[in-house]
Design brief:
Elements lengths: L2 H18 L5 H9 L1 H20 L5 H10 L8 H19 L7 H7 L5 E4 L9 E3 L5 E3 L12 E4 L14 E6 L5 E4 L5 E4 L3 E6 L7 E12 L8 E5 L2 E5 L3 E6 L6 E6 L2 E5 L5 E4 L3 E5 L6 E5 L3 H7 L2 E8 H12 L2 E4 L8 E7 L4 H11 L4 E4 L2 E4 L1
Parallel strand pairs: 4-6, 9-10, 19-22
Antiparallel strand pairs: 1-19, 2-3, 2-5, 5-8, 6-7, 7-9, 8-9, 9-12, 10-11, 11-14, 12-13, 13-16, 14-15, 16-17, 18-20, 21-22
Helix pairs in contact: 1-5, 3-5
Length: 381
């Protein structure tokens, strides 16, 4: 078989998959995972797709598909065009399925066991946001409301804030328990949107050549630009250095730490990894379970910007990840009585400030799971 014949065969197969809407088989996924040319195409297609989504919140997928099919070329189309089309189709499929293909192997094995699986457990039934000083003394933060899509606590530590009536060298730790969220305005004007179950350690005033903070959990940062004083975030075994940009760090204990860049540029490094990497918008760096290697992939950033804006937003995400986020957000136990369901993938959007029963009702409407709340526990069947 000549190279031209091979390209034509791949093109025909890809176009057939696109038209029928079939989900790629495991063999096809393995093939895509091993094809470096396709992986490069994935990056280009994902970047283009992200740009389109930023411009249009609502895209009629069926209309776009019909439009494409109406302009599908005849069998006599040049091989070059067909190869480009096939590469685009396969790349789009790879963007949807490949990133989680190997990472989900462990979950798939777990799901084969039919014993009930605990997705999330409540540690404190009456959580409060607290601020802890260097001596370990804690105070509960007052509840404040802002004009937003959700009710969010906001605490400012800017230089003109009355809360700064302590020594400049003082280091504070803001603890945000599950069931709560917080927007912290740091001394330099940078903002950290703290997710439920997170804590941020920072100085009362940034002194010296760098602006350093420590994160446990997850946060969306909007860093005020200051080229003379780099902003550094320490999270588990990772270090993220920026001058001024927006990015998300997820570093919950027991989960794979990730850094996702929204705008600008960030440098990511790890203690046990020689060298580091510089991210571009739409790229995500992940630290391996052994903290010995950094990997890079293209992702859609909507999940992170929508969380900041007050929404649950999941595009082809495992049910387990969705339920874990809901458990953290509402601080409720989550148990799945049919673990095989946890690897199902769903697309789901809801307002984080909605009543939990409304959120579960919308999940149930999709038809893949049945979730009910009993007391302070979500039971999924």
């Amino acid at each position: 078989m000549t190279d031209e014949d091979l390209r034509n065969k791949i093109a025909e197969t890809a176009l057939d998959i696109m038209e029928t809407g079939n989900i790629p088989t495991e063999e096809q996924l393995k093939l895509l995972a091993e094809d470096k040319a396709t992986q490069e195409a994935c990056l280009q297609i994902q970047a283009a797709a992200t740009a389109v989504r930023r411009r249009q919140e609502h895209i009629d997928v069926e209309a776009r598909l019909q439009q494409f099919n109406s302009h599908r070329p005849s069998k006599h189309t040049t091989p070059i065009w067909r190869w480009i089309a096939a590469a685009a189709v396969i790349a789009a499929l790879a963007v949807l399925f490949l990133p989680d293909y190997f990472s989900n192997k462990k979950e798939i094995s777990m799901a084969e066991n039919n014993s009930p699986y605990t997705v999330f457990s409540v540690e404190d039934s009456h959580p409060q946001i607290t601020l802890v000083n260097s001596d370990g003394n804690a105070v509960e933060m007052p509840q404040q409301e802002t004009i937003s899509r959700i009710i969010t606590n906001v605490v400012s530590f800017k230089a003109d804030s009355a809360i700064l009536r302590v020594e400049p060298e003082e280091r504070l730790t803001m603890n945000v328990p599950n069931g709560k969220s917080l927007l912290v305005e740091l001394p330099d004007g940078s903002k950290a949107h703290l997710h439920p179950g997170s804590s941020l350690k920072f100085p009362v005033r940034f002194i010296g050549g760098t602006r350093e903070v420590e994160l446990n959990g997850e946060a969306y940062f909007e860093v005020t630009r200051d080229a003379q004083h780099p902003f550094i975030v320490f999270a588990q075994d990772m270090q993220v250095l920026v001058l001024g940009t927006e990015f998300n760090i997820a570093a919950y204990h027991g989960d794979t730490p990730t850094v996702t860049l929204i705008h600008g540029s960030v440098s990511v490094s790890a203690k046990a990894v020689s060298g580091g990497m510089t991210l571009k918008p739409g790229e995500q760096a992940a630290l391996s379970a052994q903290a010995s290697a950094l990997s890079l992939r293209q992702v859609s950033t909507e999940k992170y910007t929508n969380w900041r804006d007050g929404y649950f937003y999941y595009d082809d995400m495992p049910v387990r990840d969705i339920l874990l986020d809901i458990g953290r957000n509402y601080n409720v136990d989550v148990v799945c009585e049919t673990p095989a369901l946890l690897t199902e993938r769903m697309r789901f959007v809801a307002t984080r400030g909605s009543d939990i029963r409304e959120v579960l009702s919308r999940l149930n409407d999709i038809g893949k799971i049945r979730a009910t709340i009993i007391g302070n526990k979500i039971v999924v069947k």
